[in-house]
Specification:
The protein has one domain: BFD-like [2Fe-2S]-binding domain (Arc Repressor Mutant, subunit A, Orthogonal Bundle), CATH 1.10.10.1100. The model has no long low-confidence stretch (mean pLDDT 97). The chain is built from 3 helices and 2 strands. By secondary structure, the protein is mainly alpha-helical. Helix content is 54%, strand content 9%. It binds FE2/S2 (inorganic) cluster (FES). The site of FE2/S2 (inorganic) cluster (FES) has 10 residues, from loops.
């Protein structure tokens, strides 16, 4: 599933970023060499990050 359309970030990319230490959408995107643009994905990204961290 695509999390961020602007940056073409997939759920698995986001999870990888979380596993390597990212704890916010901004830091996760930065780890992927990207940054939020329109911002629409941020609440969803935040939810996914929280879920991934809870299951780690
Ligand atoms: S969908 Fe992620 S910044 Fe636009």
């Amino acid at each position: 599933m695509v999390v961020c359309v602007c940056n073409a970030i997939r759920e698995k990319d986001l999870k990888e970023a979380v596993r390597s230490g990212a704890d916010t959408p901004c830091s996760a995107y930065a780890r992927l060499g990207r940054r939020p643009k329109c911002g629409q994905c941020v609440p969803f990204a935040r939810t996914l990050i929280a879920a991934e961290r809870a299951s780690a």
